[in-house]
Design brief:
Two copies of one chain form a homodimer.
Chain A lengths: L2 E2 L2 H20 L6 E7 L3 H17 L2 E7 L5 H13 L5 E4 L9 H7 L11 H9 L8 H12 L8 E5 L6 H10 L3 E5 L6 H6 L3 E4 L17 E4 L3 E2 L5 E2 L4 H4 L5 E2 L7 H19 L4
Parallel strand pairs in A: 1-11, 2-3, 2-4, 5-6, 5-7, 7-8, 8-11
Antiparallel strand pairs in A: 9-10
Helix pairs in contact in A: 1-10, 2-10, 6-7, 6-10
Chain lengths: 285, 285
């Protein structure tokens, strides 16, 4: 019987810890607050925003949404962003990306206070993730994978872990988080020759390629632990991961579903980052 | 017959290109200059410094050594460093590390102008290496490995490359440079289980563990390309790499010796970085 690693269970455990942390802050008169900066109103962003606000509300984190015009110029954008960055009541900032074409993302990456940069935009946090310095903030999705593995007591130490995908939001930072925990990490991508074998040979397989159902039964073995980070729209119009779940589930040791897997943990990591930022900005822990 | 990949051949080819580049700068009235900041006078640093000065001189790059007292305080150190950083005639800065205990390395990492940071201390350059942005400077030794592979026409694209070692000066940045060139990269380290097999399974094996002669004949196959980044003192008191050269050389396709391999290319990369910095700081190419 394969174990289905459910994001909701991980999120529930994280919620308890978050409630305790927020309560501790409240006793010091601090209410952690997330600033959400959104340029325009893309449906995807709005959907994520609704989810994030609900998640934050559920653990006592305040949210402030700063909605800016899709046609805003660089100077005005920087001024608005700077106001959020300098607002002492806002501890973490989430900026929806990509930004519209007229805006320079690099300049905001260099501008954001690294202590409020809870989704790893700043070179300071990127460099920390790369070097294994845990005092920074890793991208939330990459960290969500680590939370799932930890919750299901899957020790990565010394294990062969194959990561498919090398993006800066999942594949690469996740590889560094795994390396920090002493996994032996192989990073695969579209140019990898014999991807099937490399995946099948892994004890833990993380699919973060963004390609619907590309991981079939040939990519796994009986002992595989499979973590699916993909969120795609399948040929049937339904949400699906990078893993062909139905074909793989019976064959492997454990697997995360999509939806209801890693994606369900990401906003919990975001909340954890806001709480950590609130502590750090107030000189606590 | 195994091919011995000699650093001197790589360096000779790089020298020709460097001479051309320096000549081009000269026609614009620019003499590239390296600033070497040394705190104290460790014999290792002095030896590297002599080699670097000789290498720079050979291609027409000027050197300025700023020697500071081993007991210098943070404020004085920052003032001295800042003077070098702001000197428009100095295009690249090499700072010997580790710094003495009383000095804060992190502060100088954040202080250095990323455009003069030719050995990848600044978070800006570290983040660039991680993200695959080639406009920054990678650590010289990591890049020297890429130069050796390129010179000997070893295409890494799609290949299984195993890197042993995960330091921030070689293992990790090199893995990112290899990934950028579309290699399938496996990062191994002291906690890797079954290291022998993982190494033997690689088409290209890079040893950057800092452990004398740890790579024996059992770690390689007939088709292995072996690059040895280690510089250790062996049990016989002689310089040796991470690879047991005599035991491995006859078995593999090609291999770099130690000394005379990657180490002989590092200062050529440093020179190339100074020239690139001189161009970039002057708004050229």
């Amino acid at each position: 019987m394969s174990i289905i690693m459910k994001g909701s269970e991980v999120a529930a455990a994280m919620k308890e810890e978050l409630l305790r942390e927020v309560e501790k802050l409240a006793r010091k008169g601090i209410v952690p607050q997330l600033g959400i900066v959104r340029v325009g109103a893309r449906p995807d962003d709005l959907a994520y925003e609704r989810g994030a606000i609900k998640k934050m509300g559920g653990v006592g984190i305040r949210c402030k949404v700063i909605e800016l015009s899709e046609s805003i110029g660089q100077a005005d954008f920087e001024q608005e962003f700077s106001a959020v960055d300098n607002n002492p009541d806002i501890h973490g900032i989430l900026l929806f990306r990509p930004l519209p074409r007229q805006l320079d993302e690099q300049s905001v990456r260099n501008m954001i206070n690294p202590k409020k940069d809870i989704d790893c935009m700043s070179p300071v946090n990127i460099a920390k993730v790369f070097s294994g310095d845990e005092s920074g903030f890793a991208p939330c999705t990459a960290e969500a994978v680590m939370e799932v593995l930890a919750h299901y007591a899957i020790d990565v130490r010394g294990k062969r872990v194959t990561v498919v995908g090398r993006s800066m939001v999942v594949g690469k930072p996740l590889s560094m988080l795994l390396l920090k925990k002493n996994a032996t990490v192989t990073i695969c991508h579209t140019k990898t020759i014999n991807l099937e074998e490399t995946c099948r040979n892994a004890e833990i397989l993380v699919a973060a390629a963004g390609k619907a159902a590309m991981i079939t039964a040939d990519f796994v073995s009986e002992n595989s632990v499979v973590v699916d980070v993909g969120i795609n729209v399948g040929s049937d119009g339904k949400l699906c991961g990078d893993v062909d779940f139905d074909a793989v589930v019976a064959k492997v040791a454990s697997i995360t579903p999509v939806p209801g897997g890693v994606g369900a943990v990401t906003s919990s990591v975001l909340a954890e980052h806001v709480v950590r930022a609130a502590n750090s900005l107030n000189g606590l822990s």
